[in-house]
Every structure is written in C-alpha cells, then in structure tokens.
C-alpha cells in the first residue's frame, strides 16, 4: 500500500476498504469469526479488507483504550467501529500502512457515506489524537490491554503459564506470521523445490533436519506464484504443524530418538492410521506424502471435511473420510484397531493468534475449560481403539497448559496402560518466541507457531 495515496495497489479507495473493515471488526466484536466474515466480503475487496482487519485486530486493545480516552461516551456501533479502525491505523508502527493525513481524510469520507452527521465528530477525534499522540501513547503503555493488545484474562493466563516468556509470547502474537511451505515428499526434496523457487526469483531457506520438507519464504506469496502448486508439488503449512505427521510415522517404527530424521522413519505399507480431527487436511495429506497408509480421516464439520477432500485431490492422494464426531465411536468404528492415531484436538487456537488475530477477541475465559473437557472426552474415546503397543499423537495449536501438558498429565493418571514418550525434543509445548524455536542446519531460528505435542504409547499387554 502506498503511504501517500488514498488508494490501494489494486486501485481501490481506502474509504471503501475502511467501510468493509469496520463491518468486519464489528462482527468480530459481536462474536463472529473473521474467516467467516471475509468469506462473504466482495471478492475484489477481500485482500485489502483482510490486510486492514488483521492490522486493526492486532491493535484493537490500544484503539479501544484510545476511544474511551478521546470519546468517553461510546458512539453508535457503526461510528465506533470505523473510528476504531482509523485509530488502529494511526497507532505508531514501524511500517505504517498509510500516512496519517490519508487515514484521517479517508475515514472522514467513509463516515460521510455511513453516517454523515458523525463525520465532524470522527474528524475531531482523529485530529486530536494526532496532536496529542505522543502523550496519549505513552500514557496507555500503563494499560496492559492497550500495551499488549490482548484481553486481560488472556494476558493473565499466559503470564501464569509462562512466567519467563509471557511478554515475548504476546509480542510474537502481534507480529506478522512467516509463510512456510511443505514440499510433497512424493514429488521431490525440499532442496529440489528451493531450486525451483530460486529460478523464479523467490528467496527461501530450508528449515533443517527436524522439518525436512519445510521451506521458509523470505516474503509471503500468493499460492498462484508457487511453481507446481496446482500439481501438488507443495502446500502451505506452518512449521510447527509440520511436526505432526512425521512424528506419527516415526512413532510407528519406534524411531523417536534425539537427532533422528523423522521423515525417513518408513513403516510397512498399509498400516492402519486414524486422523481423528482432520480438517482442513494439511496433516492428513502430510501423512500420506510420507507413507502409503490405510488412513481414515474424520471431522465433525462436513463443510470443513470437504476441504480435506479438496486438498487430497490436489495432491493426488487417497484416504477414507467421514463427517462424524470422533467421540461417538459406535457411529463409525468398524472394530479394527489402529496402529496409530493422530488427535489434533479442537482447542482455543491460542498458539496461532498471529495468523488468526481475531481469536484473542472471540475467546472467553470459560471456553478453555469447555475445550479441555472435549479434549479429555476425545482421548478417552479413542484410546480403546488403539491396538496394544500402538501410539497416539496428541496435538493442539494452543500454548495454554490446560490444553497441553495438564491435559496429558490428567490422562496418564486415568490410564495406567499409557506412557508418555519423548521424541527428538519435539514433544511438549512449543512457544512462538525465538529462544524456544528449533534451528536449521545453519543455526538460524525456525519461527514456530504455538503448539503442543505428546506421544503416548499403549502398553503391549493392554486389553482395553
């Protein structure tokens, strides 16, 4: 975006995008997912609306505090949410999306379209903020919600769970996520695909032995720019999420020692594997890229399961898929035990907030206990389906201990036939801060989302 223009690179006036973004932010504040809102946004406005919405939601705590300071009486929602968007865009940033005078001008123009009598009010508030910006920003640094741009309960929980890393976690959540790729092992190596990228002028770096199919792009790109994407040569998948499939495959061969290459842990073709909560299908596809398996992929949401089928079709892979609640085993299990189960359980998504900045504003404190109950129910329901000596990989994209280590500890107390295994330093909580990431061969930090992995072994003598 040009900082000195009222139009985006696509020639769309900023005032149009501000109106769309204000609607999106209002929907999130009312409890709707940004993903769902953007899906209903006019196609030509969607990229710009998404970019602005992400920026606003990463600064929403500060914007809301500013609004209360500058206009103690809340204006009507259609006015307030447009004002919040403008304030977030004016908040100091290393790379401001637009010049300040452009934001003010376009916000006032947008307000004239939406509620003309309030245009003067919006103009006055924004110009006052610019006059007093330094003092106002400094004062709001003492407000934790404004400073960290997370709800207070979220800040408190992260601080309690990670007293040494909480500030780094919250800061990482407000950064732009890297774009990582997973190269299809059936079509070539990561080094081979890196050469294809280089030939097209796209710089990248290998993620290393721990993530042997992974590549990190220097700059995010549309998938249409990735060579061979439509032919299944590569997929977009976060580095932390790329651990699940090779960990599952390696566990089946018992190759989970420090320093071992997870991708090379081959097992006999046809091993029976369950992907219990599979949508949108990245981990499902990764499993099949690594190994020929008798794979069943489940998801409770039929629409999301359609995305699994779409991903498999693009990658020319096959698996059984069923839209069912994995907990209701009587509805779908045929009685044949599984060699391995991957349970990427529903969770708060607190580890992937930089990719989904609306999550922090949508979640409520009581959600965590409710999600933890669902996770426990899934573990208890699926464990009997695992053959003696089999392995279950439990994963969540959460950094809350209640959904990770505490959940597994409680399960181990309930199941004496279960044992937790360590695997190459990749089990446990992975935090989205540099000093907790993996490293590639060059010693460079690999940026990870927040995730939790546990590898559980079922006793060979188990009869349950």
UniProtKB/TrEMBL annotation:
Enzyme class: transferase
Residues annotated as catalytic: 397 (nucleophile)
Keyword Ubl conjugation (UniProt): no
Example GO molecular function: methyltransferase activity
GO BP: any one term: methylation
InterPro entries in UniProt: MeTrfase_RsmB-F_NOP2_cat (IPR049560), MeTrfase_RsmB-F_NOP2_dom (IPR001678), NusB-like_sf (IPR035926), NusB_RsmB_TIM44 (IPR006027), RCMT (IPR023267), rRNA_ssu_MeTfrase_B (IPR004573), RsmB-like_ferredoxin (IPR054728), RsmB/NOL1/NOP2-like_CS (IPR018314)
Subcellular location: Cytoplasm
Pfam family, one: NusB
Catalytic activity: cytidine(967) in 16S rRNA + S-adenosyl-L-methionine = 5-methylcytidine(967) in 16S rRNA + S-adenosyl-L-homocysteine + H(+)
Keywords noted in UniProt: Cytoplasm, Methyltransferase, RNA-binding, rRNA processing, S-adenosyl-L-methionine, Transferase
Domain SAM-dependent MTase RsmB/NOP-type: 169-459
SUPFAM superfamilies: NusB-like (SSF48013), S-adenosyl-L-methionine-dependent methyltransferases (SSF53335)
Its job: Specifically methylates the cytosine at position 967 (m5C967) of 16S rRNA.
Protein name listed in UniProt: 16S rRNA (cytosine(967)-C(5))-methyltransferase
Organism of this sequence: Roseateles subflavus
């Amino acid at each position: 975006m040009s900082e000195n223009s009222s139009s985006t690179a696509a020639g769309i006036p900023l005032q149009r995008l501000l109106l769309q973004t204000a609607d999106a932010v209002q929907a999130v504040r009312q409890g709707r997912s940004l993903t769902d809102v953007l899906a209903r946004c006019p196609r030509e406005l969607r990229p710009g609306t998404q970019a602005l919405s992400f920026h606003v939601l990463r600064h929403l705590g500060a914007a809301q505090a500013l609004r209360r300071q500058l206009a103690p009486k809340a204006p009507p929602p259609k006015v307030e949410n447009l004002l919040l968007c403008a304030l977030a865009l004016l908040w100091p940033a290393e790379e401001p999306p637009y010049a300040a005078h452009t934001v003010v001008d376009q916000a006032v123009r947008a307000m004239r379209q939406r509620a003309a009598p309030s245009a003067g009010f919006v103009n006055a508030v924004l110009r006052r903020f610019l006059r007093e910006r330094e003092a106002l920003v400094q004062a709001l640094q003492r407000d934790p919600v404004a400073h960290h741009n997370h709800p207070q309960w979220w800040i408190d929980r992260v601080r309690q769970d990670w007293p040494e890393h909480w500030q780094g976690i919250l800061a990482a959540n407000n950064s732009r996520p890297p774009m990582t790729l997973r190269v299809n092992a059936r079509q070539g190596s990561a080094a081979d695909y890196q050469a294809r990228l280089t030939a097209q002028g796209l710089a990248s770096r290998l993620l290393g032995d721990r993530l042997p199919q992974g590549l990190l792009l220097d700059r995010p790109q549309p998938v249409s720019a990735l060579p061979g994407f439509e032919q299944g040569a590569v997929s977009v998948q976060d580095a932390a999420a790329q651990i699940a499939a090779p960990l599952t495959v390696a566990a089946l061969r018992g190759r989970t020692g420090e320093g071992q290459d997870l991708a090379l842990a081959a097992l006999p073709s046809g091993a029976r594997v369950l992907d219990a909560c599979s949508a949108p299908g990245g981990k499902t596809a990764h499993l099949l890229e690594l190994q020929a398996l008798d794979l069943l992929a489940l998801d409770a949401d039929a629409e999301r399961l359609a995305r699994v089928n779409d991903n498999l079709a693009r990658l020319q892979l096959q698996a059984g898929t069923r839209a069912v609640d994995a907990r209701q085993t009587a509805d779908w299990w045929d009685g044949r035990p599984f060699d391995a189960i991957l349970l990427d359980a529903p969770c708060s998504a607190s580890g992937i907030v930089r990719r989904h900045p609306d999550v922090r504003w949508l979640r409520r404190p009581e959600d965590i206990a409710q999600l933890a109950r669902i996770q426990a129910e899934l573990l208890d329901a699926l464990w009997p389906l695992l053959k003696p000596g089999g392995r279950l990989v439990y994963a969540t994209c959460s950094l809350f201990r209640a959904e990770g280590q505490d959940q597994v500890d409680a399960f181990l107390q309930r199941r004496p036939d279960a044992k937790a295994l360590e695997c190459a330093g990749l089990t446990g909580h992975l935090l989205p801060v540099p000093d907790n990431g993996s490293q590639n061969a060059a010693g460079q930090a690999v940026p990870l989302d927040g995730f939790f992995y546990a590898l559980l072994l079922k006793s060979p003598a188990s009869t349950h």
